[in-house]
Amino acid sequence: MGTHVIKMPDIGEGIAEVELSQWHVKVGDHVVEDQVLADVMTDKAMVDIPSPVHGKVIALGGQPGEVMAVGSVLISIEVEGAGNLKESAAPAPVKEAPVAPKVEAAVESKPAAATAPRPAAVCQGPMVAREADERPLASPAVRKHALDLGIQLRLVRGSGPAGRVLHEDLEAYLAQGQSNASAPVAAAYAQRNDEEQIQVIGMRRKIAQRMQDATQRAAHFSYVEEIDVTAIEELRAHLNEKHGASRGKLTLLPFLVRALVVALRDFPQMNARYDDEAQVITRLGAVHVGVATQSDVGLMVPVVRHAEARSLWDSAAEISRLANAARNGKASRDELSGSTITLTSLGALGGIVSTPVLNLPEVAIVGVNKIVERPMVVKGQVVIRKMMNLSSSFDHRVVDGMDAALFIQAIRGLLEQPATLFVE
Q1: Between these two residues, 92 and 205, which has the higher pLDDT value?
Q2: 34 an active-site residue?
Q3: Alpha helix (H) ranges present in 277-341?
Q4: Which of 190, 334, 374, 387 has the CA that lies 20 to 30 A from 178?
């Protein structure tokens, strides 16, 4: 038997160190070639580290949250044959690092199966014997789903990697319990004194650092305007009815991307990056729209490149592709960098007003709030219209308030008269 040592790989772009985000294995596990061993976090993206060999894990080189240099020992695996490490050079085994869940975002695109809290679920079987304070592996969406169903997550057997509890496990647990209606009901008003500490590592730490950096370095100001989207929603419904089956369904996002592209022709100062150290503003002709997307590991901003050259359906397809890649952890570093202006939306959760944080070094971010029907006065008559607010933020160091207001008013005019989106 020999030892195969896997070192922290050189991920490129001059990166000298990366953060170990999560282990997918522990000491004693048997692994196979191409099995994912760990997730590491660079400045731009999460990267999977696969195993190049079959063998048994004998030592881990770090713990989640630890910043490791490129070339340092990541993991040691016992293999058949000589391995790639001489006996005399074998490192001392590192104490097994605990397998920690990814620190994930509180909102996930996949909706929970239940939208309103239910009474606590009856005891189900088979159950898992966990300590009362033991925190099982599960995404925030699964935790919310369990809360809505009234299920104590520590009692559910997880079928995912490392015992991770999945949505399907909750449904199976609930289905098994429906045949056991005589089981005692958990106390809905039981006193609780438990506490939970969550380590801020991986993507969540990067998000925290970027948000703090953006708010400290840029002089944010926000501008909110309401927009009558009745006409563009009618156009969207018409296009989906006529072409949805052959070209795909359109959401409002590709229309907003198109409105940005057209408005930026008259306001090029918004499609820019500001290097505050060099005191240089770079205005770009290409419109690379970052679309803020929620994922299991937190907020990511995949980039729709050259939006100025895309049709509605082309933009829609690219937005969908990038969003799926981000949510599945498959977005590349190139797909997560290089934006010139960002579009952010919480969809149906968009609220009335928001104050988006700039995606530095950009100087503008356009935030979309939810669409609501309201009575409005049009030509002296009270009519029901579909209204939506745009809550946008700008870097006041390089963008004047008047220019920001005129820019949003230009977007408003384009969306309220949607034919002008396509008039050259």
Answers
A1: 205
A2: no
A3: 312-327
A4: 190
